[in-house]
Amino acid sequence: MLGTLVMLRLHDDSHARAEQAMALAFDEVALIERLMSAHHSGSDLHRLASAQMGDLLEVHPHTAEVLKLARYWQDQSAGAFDPLRAGVELAQRGLRPALAPALARPLGRWQGLEWVSPHALRVDGALPLDLGGIAKGYAVDLALTVLRQQGVPGALVNAGGDLRAYGATAWPIEFRLPEAPTRTRRQPGLRGLREAALASSTTEPHRVDWVLTGRAWGPHAQRPRACTVMAPDCCSADALTKWVLRNPAGAGRGRLARVLRAHHARVWLS
Q1: 208-224 burial by CB neighbour count: b if 16+ within 10 A, else e?
Q2: Predicted confidence (pLDDT) at residue 110 exceeds the cutoff of 80
Q3: Cβ-based neighbour number of residue 72 at 10 Å
């Protein structure tokens, strides 16, 4: 699901309740996969990538929410987080082949996206969006919400390194080293994950969570290969990893630093 392995770990004395909750949570994750994978013909993302100027598209409420969150983070980051630019760049590099046909069409703009109802939007061209990371974070948040609603006392949701936990347990977390993916380590100062979310992104171009970082990092400084962000929700954590990797020097000052504080987020670079 979502191009990765999705795992749920539950703390619940009721086996029957845990089984039912897990099934419902996986159903929600599978729904996000069907809606927001460009590889699925007829998915909302595929329809957006195939759109033409003036098309009016009805999308699922979940897709509408993710699009609005993406626009929020695009505005907050002044374009450092930009799923449209990312989709175009990844398609051009052959890393998102399902989005490549959109490059032959007139492309739309974020500014040209007009909401005519809560779940219907008009576009001014094809929108080959790469929503993979933020959609994965949204799916993690959604799965966790389902588990809470079903009365599960505590759980950890892990979708390929996008994680969120709740309950009394502080879940031990280890991270793969970007220079040696078969090795892991613990992040300094992170004793466990509890009532929080973690997301990671990398600058390695062969990885699915690759981020084009630009050339703003100083000429003599070594640009970080990976970024991990802890935040209250996984969707925000994932969006912030993209912003931080495009502007790692800004994590300690300026607009990015203010937004990190406002979202109670913490950053690790490696």
Answers
A1: bbbbebeeebeeeeeeb
A2: yes
A3: 14
**Would you say residue 182 has pLDDT above 70?**
no
Rounded Cα gap, residues 32 and 29, in angstroms = 5
C-alpha 177/C-alpha 173 separation (Å) is: 13
DSSP string, 203-260: --TTSTTB---TT-S-TTSPPPSEEEEEESSHHHHHHHHHHHHH-GGGGGSHHHHHHH
Q: Helix, strand, or coil here: 70?
A: helix
The tens digit of pLDDT for each residue in 25-49 reads 999 999 999 999 878 888 999 999 9
Query: If 0-12 CB within 10 Å is exposed, 13-18 middle and 19+ buried, where does residue 40 land?
Result: middle
The whole-angstrom separation of Cα 1 and Cα 7 is 10
Element (H, E) at 171: none
pTM (two decimals): 0.88
pLDDT tens string 191-218: 889 999 999 888 764 443 433 333 333 4
Beta-carbon contacts of 131 under 8 Å, excluding residues fewer than 6 positions away, are: 36, 45, 66, 67, 70, 83
Which pLDDT value is given to residue 215? 34
